[in-house]
Amino acid sequence: MMTFSDIASSLAQDSQSDELNFQLSYYKAKKEMTLSPEAQEILRLHPFLRTKEMLHTAMVSLQTAVEAFSEFPTNMKQSLVKVGWYEKFNANQVIIRQGHNALNFYFIISGTTAVSVALKKPTGEPFNKTVAFLRKGESFGVSRFC
């Protein structure tokens, strides 16, 4: 870990002038919160095995990790942690294909997913076009709560 003096010396050497440059990014806290390992474990359990205490722990962790989750009404958050589960996807893994029925509602806890549509060139050759990127706090799929 670099000290302030180390950073200042490094910046002064890199700078064309004799002024001291201040880089806020060196000192800014990384506020990216993730779902706690305990909450991940709880949300991997079958819903019938989750106790009230476990549900509370998972809900608090989700509220802390994902600001958008905390904006849901309390009864909806409780319903989500009762029946929802934690699932992790690999890079480039297809979650749902265009034209298939969505059977689940996905809430992005961390990472990014690309939304692509299958199109055809004027020649008839198929290609995929990325139309959006969904990030932490966003969701997609079918909601059974509607």
UniProtKB/TrEMBL annotation:
Return the PROSITE patterns for the record: CNMP_BINDING_3
Q: Which residues form the Cyclic nucleotide-binding domain?
A: 68-141
Record-given protein name:
Cyclic nucleotide-binding domain-containing protein
Task: Print the organism lineage.
Answer: Eukaryota, Metazoa, Spiralia, Lophotrochozoa, Platyhelminthes
